[in-house]
Specification:
The chain has 7 helices and 10 strands. With 315 residues, it is of the alpha+beta class. The mean pLDDT is 86.
Length: 315
Amino acid sequence: MNTVENLRNRIEELRNEIRTYDYNAFKTELDKIIPFVKIPFVITKELHRIDTPFYQDPSIIFRARPNTNNSLKTTMKEPWWHVSEISIISQENKAKITFGRANKQYEPRFYACNSWSTACYETIWNEFPLNTKSNSKYFTVGVWQITEPLKLVLMPYSPYYIHKLKNQENKITQQIKNILKDERAFLIENIVKENKNFLYDIFILDFFTDEFAKQNINDEYDYFFTNYYCDQVFEKHFDENGVQDIDGIIYPSICFSYQNDNVVLHPRALNKIKFIEAMYVWVVYHENNGKTEYIPIHNPAKVTSDGSLYWELFK
């Protein structure tokens, strides 16, 4: 019988040995001790956010991509000109995909956020101070709307990492702590109802919660545990008709101090969202005070019938 202590010991052994495995061999070893993961999920069209500048609708999600091409007309970088350039990476380009928090190598996933500023920060959080002359970067931010309810696994806030945040007494941190307390009480109540061996299930939930919250990422091996959880979510959960039914995972934005949420969607769920428009954003890092400013420059850019984006500022 797998006790919590046996499970904890074997997980630590695997963590120490992880660079001796490829992902499939690692997954086989974890399957021996974690045959099934119980997952908390919600069915919703709304992802509520703490900050709501410009976009109030909770069914709106955002995906950002840094602009890299020089413009002949301005000192700013050119925006991206087609929806396909800011959406999920295509099957034709999947060779470019490396391991991420919720995807394996060559595995397309649609990463987005419920905040446009956090969506920008998620792409550059490990680059500060920004490696540019002006300590700034330009982004094209795509705006999508959830049009049908999504079945989303809820990855809770990590009790371990929440207490490592700076400014523990500020208003937002206190708000997050209150959410954490209520959320955890709800999850544990439901786990206890369903299973006599609830301590085992709570340990598994807490373990993967902490893995999703991990900030120090050195290489692809640091994503093996979270990808194992994603495989459990996307491959092993079925509806009453035997169809894989999980659309995605909601997890807190670790790099943005838990102030907003990220969502990663499986490609099978993309028919439940619709592209609306795009915005051009200038992100400036002020090294003297350590603050980052997010400035919308052009909003919105409308999409044409062939997926092209019309940017009046750059025509």
